[in-house]
């Protein structure tokens, strides 16, 4: 059976979606898996048709789950993808709220037509002291308002929690035990 | 043979089947699926076979090599490793003991009192 460009696109779509869900695998293994699934799908599509080949392999989500289970076992596992999302999105959110808070303080100073240097301790525990300097002429300057050490600690803890990264420790100890057993 | 198989039973024995098929002949993923289907496991899906082959490879029971294919990209052929050969022998013996045990229980006559 001939495989046309449309069928190849359908196969590539599944392979790409599978790849996106295998980011917790080591890179070399992910690439090898992608190549293997593509080759097998092409062989199956030439044999029974693309629709049937895709049906028989199941959805990308189910297939990814099987691959991850084959690699990490049935036990609960960590997720680098979730950790990555948390690492990227939490600073965006936190920065948004901290900036909003500092902006509100600065707006208050400006609205009061104050001249001088005004400080605000910032959002409790999360933000360093915000200092707004208004000279009455020219723009108002602002310093501070960044993350406190506690904010960094909370960020790291949130990344670990979102990615369930403590499970890495258990996995590495299992690997060490398996090596010792052999 | 087209009867369906209990997925749970099949899951338990899939590794043994794969090891045996590959011990018979070096094969690539889809070919293994075809051979399983030809052996009567028509309801075995590729989505469970390929990851299982991966796991056997990761466990050192299978070795692989890429073979250029005239029909497209190179295919990954699986072959049994020495460790895989030992695992196949052990699993086959364990399976035989298991079947003998199950058959021994199933062969016992059922009494009328036990029927309800």
TrEMBL record, chain A:
<protein>
    <submittedName>
        <fullName>Uncharacterized protein</fullName>
    </submittedName>
</protein>
<feature type="transmembrane region" description="Helical">
    <location>
        <begin position="149"/>
        <end position="166"/>
    </location>
</feature>
<keyword id="KW-1133">Transmembrane helix</keyword>
<keyword id="KW-0472">Membrane</keyword>
<feature type="transmembrane region" description="Helical">
    <location>
        <begin position="79"/>
        <end position="98"/>
    </location>
</feature>
<keyword id="KW-0812">Transmembrane</keyword>
UniProtKB/TrEMBL annotation, chain B:
<dbReference type="InterPro" id="IPR036390">
    <property type="entry name" value="WH_DNA-bd_sf"/>
</dbReference>
<dbReference type="InterPro" id="IPR005149">
    <property type="entry name" value="Tscrpt_reg_PadR_N"/>
</dbReference>
<feature type="domain" description="Transcription regulator PadR N-terminal">
    <location>
        <begin position="18"/>
        <end position="90"/>
    </location>
</feature>
<protein>
    <submittedName>
        <fullName>PadR family transcriptional regulator</fullName>
    </submittedName>
</protein>
<dbReference type="InterPro" id="IPR052509">
    <property type="entry name" value="Metal_resp_DNA-bind_regulator"/>
</dbReference>
<dbReference type="InterPro" id="IPR036388">
    <property type="entry name" value="WH-like_DNA-bd_sf"/>
</dbReference>
<dbReference type="Pfam" id="PF03551">
    <property type="entry name" value="PadR"/>
</dbReference>
